[in-house]
Amino acid sequence: MWLKMLPKNWRRSYRRCERPAAVPGAAQPRTAGAAPRSSRNARTSFRRSTRGAGNRRWYERNTGRAVGDVQKRLRHPIHKWMAATLDGLIEPGGEVFEAKFMLPWTFSEEAAAEKYMPQLQHNMWVVHARSAALSIITGGGKWVEVVVWADPLYQHLLLTAERKFWRCVMGGEPPRLFGVDPPRARLEAIRSVDMSASNSWAAFSATYRRTRDAHLEHEGAKAELKKLVPEDAKEAFGHGVKAKRSKSGAVSFELLEASDAPVQ
Fold first, then answer.
1. What is the 3-state secondary structure (H, E, C) of the chain?
2. What angle do helix axes 152-171 and 8-18 make, rounded to 10 degrees?
3. Distance of CA 164 to the CA centre of its chain
4. What residue segments make up the domains of the chain, in order of their start?
5. Model confidence over 21-64: pLDDT tens digits?
6. Which CATH code of 3.20.20.30, 3.40.190.10, 3.90.320.10, 3.30.750.24 fits the domain covering 45-191?
7. Does residue 150 contact residue 144 with C-beta atoms inside 8 Å?
8. What is the CA radius of gyration of the chain?
9. Are 174 and 94 in contact (CB under 8 A)?
């Protein structure tokens, strides 16, 4: 997928530039029964605003927080070509609010966060927000909130990709894929998962159970050995074990081979 890390409206801008320009004075083809473009745009905007309003009311009712600056268009204070039309800003705090609708049979919080991560990071950078709330209503009547935090490194790479993309738009050059994986959202742990069907889980679980007692015995012996090391000793050794004290005072241990044992 071309330029998957760019916000969706940027990709639409490039597709518009790809369409052949209309010849002045020539009749434009129109599908039978199709409404004029202005009417279609008006209906689309009305549906989006209505759906966004319902999502916003659901968010406010479930979180007790208000959403302001609805559909406000803002520009970055330095990069004037960077703009964002926000679904809203959460009050108080100024977090970015983004309302989405997703089909229930393909929905997961991880997939939703990955899909909209470029848009959220772009909007957060434009308004200097530290976090964003992705408010999602699924077709099954379920409401989910995914909190996404600003990632400065990813935002820097996103800015580089947007600059290159905008040069392609202005110059008519085909864009190239800017391969940067979006950061993973920190999702709230709310599920209990049965891993009995996982072979890897079974193998590592067996190893964990088999070595647990030995690990506890090992940690206990190490703690007792640390107590036996004199406070003014830089090193202590004996019976195949050597303790070393670092400049910070931490004591570490290593095994001694027979040839490594210090000569008395």
1. CCCCCCCHHHHHHHHHHHCCCCCCCCCCCCCCCCCCHHHHHHHHHHHHHHHHHHHHHHHHHHHCCEEECCCCEEECCCCCCCEEECCEEEECCCCEEEEEEECHHHCCHHHHHHHHHHHHHHHHHHHCCCEEEEEEEECCCCEEEEEEECCHHHHHHHHHHHHHHHHHHHHCCCCCCCCCCCCCCCCCCCCCCCCCCCHHHHHHHHHHHHHHHHHHHHHHHHHHHHHHCCCCCCEEEECCEEEEECCCCCEEEEECCHHHCCCC
2. 10
3. 22
4. 45-191, 193-224, 229-264
5. 443 333 344 444 455 555 555 555 444 544 678 899 989 998 99
6. 3.90.320.10
7. no
8. 29
9. no
The tokens describing 111, both together, are 């997939």
Both structure tokens of 90: 């959460």
pLDDT single digits (tens) 64-115: 999 999 999 999 999 888 899 999 999 988 999 999 998 888 788 888 888 9
